[in-house]
Amino acid sequence: MGEATARPLRADAERSVRVILEAAERVLAADPGASLEQVAAAAGVARTTVHRRFASRQALVEALASSAARRLADAVDDGRPDTAPPLVAMHRITANVLQVKGAWAFALEQAAEPSGEAADLQREVDRRCVTVLERARDEGLIDAAADLDWVRRVYYALLGETLRGDPAGDPDVLAARVVDTLLRGAGPRP
Predict the structure, then answer these.
(1) pTM of the model
(2) Which residues bind DNA (predicted)?
C-alpha cells in the first residue's frame, strides 16, 4: 500500500497523506470513477505528490479503505466495549460509528482484500461488537437465547438505514434510536 512504509512518515508527509485521503473520500463519493488528477486537484496538491504517495488509483483506494477502517476501529475502541456498562458502550459506539460511517461512506463501502489491513480491522470491529452484545446479554438487555451474530447483523442494518434516512442527524439522538430499536424493537411500550 502507498500509505504505510517501513519507516514512519515525516509530519508533513503524514499531513499530505491525510489531506489526499480526505479529498479522495469527497471526490470518489461524488464520482467513483474520478482520476488521481481530480483527487490531487481537490486536495490542493500536485499530481506528482499523489503519485509519489500512491503507486496507482487502486493503491489509493486500498489506503483509503484501510484509513477509514482504522477510524472505525478507533470509534469502537473509544466506546470502551470491554469495560463501559454495556448500554453506555452501545450508545457511545453507535454515535461514534455513525459519525465515521457518515464521513467515510465511500471508503467503508469498498470491498476489502481478504488478507488486507481493512479486512483485518473489520473482523476486529465485528469481534468487538459481539463482545458488547455478549455483555449486554449477560446484563439481561438481550434475550439469553438470541443469536448474537444475527443481532450484530441487524445492528449493522440499523446503522446503514439510519445513515440513509438521516445522514446529517445528531449522532447522539440517532444512536439512542438505533440502540432502542435494537434492544426493544418497534412494538408498543408498556
Answers:
(1) 0.83
(2) 35-54
